[in-house]
Write a structure and sequence with these properties.
The chain has 252 residues and is mostly helical. 72% of the residues lie in helices and 0% in strands. The chain has one domain.
Length: 252
Amino acid sequence: MSSTVLTWLNIARGPLFRFAFTLMVLGMARVIALGCSDMIGAFVTATDRTVFWRKVRLRICWLTFPTLVLHQLRPQCGGAMRLFHIALCFASMVFRIVAIVLPALLVAHVYLWKRGIGLTWPVLSGGVADTLAWIVIGLGIALFFGRLCSPVLREIDPPWSFLKPLILIVPFVTGVLAMHPTWSSVDYHVLLLLHTLSGVIVLVLVPFTRLLTCMHRPLTFVMPEAAWQGLSPRDDAMSPRTPPAAREGGSR
């Protein structure tokens, strides 16, 4: 084992991990605070509460099952394409849930938390952990190719966002190899270093890149704010697109 690798491993598992975790917590707190602020402001200023709650439902749907919103905007994408997007969204939801929960229940991770802050909780058995890790890896690869095959997602999301599933599975791939050293010719401590660094990168990216959501683009990019609520008859009459004669109540 190289002393350089051991030094970097100690740095990655110590101050670097603490910095990344703190940044993730603060970044997510900022995202939640901004979201709550927007919702409170919209609720206070909304003249029609039904419109407000409709926007809330659309945002929740966009975060969890965006294919329902996409189908409303592009009804021509029906039939097999709609079923394809439903399956893609379901796979993405399972992928994100397991990717979040699994690391918190691994025995090695719980041991680190116990050593760092003195807290512990139940862990998964080795067989269950391996099975869930392979599910995450398989779903991540399937989502990568599935998103590439979607003409709707290629139109909406930026090209780099298609790499999100691959970024998320790197810690799981390196973690599985570290748990089974005989499966790889790479040195065990190098695998641990790669596993820790990839986990640190994921923690840093989570609050800034919408890494844990199915869609990278915000809902307002697809459905502009002005299009969420139709114009009232009076506003429509005063619209610049309305002929002057119509705005004055009839032709001269």
